[in-house]
Amino acid sequence: MSEWCRFSVVYWHTFRGVGSDPFGPQTLFRPWDTADNTSIPFDDIVASCCGRVDAAFEFFTKLGVEYYAFHDRDVAPELATIDETNKLLEKVTDYMLVKQKETGVKLLWGTANLFSHPKFANGAATNPDIKVFAQACAQVKKAMEVTHKLGGEGYVFWGGREGYQTLLNTDIKKELDHMAAFFHMAVAHKKSIGATFQFYIEPKPKEPTKHQYDYDAQTVMCFLKQYGLDDHFLLNIEPNHSTLAGHNYEHDIVLSAAYGKLGSIDCNTGDELLGWDTDQFLTDERKATLVMKVVIDMGGFKTGGLNFDSKVRRESTDLEDLFIAHIGSMDTFAKGLLNAAKLIEDGRLDDMRKARYSTWTSDKIGAKVESGKATLAELEAYAKKNNDVKPISGKQELYERVFNDAL
Ligand SMILES: [Mn+2]
Question: Which residues are close to ligand 1, an ion, with C-beta < 5 A?
Answer without folding.
Answer: 238, 266, 309
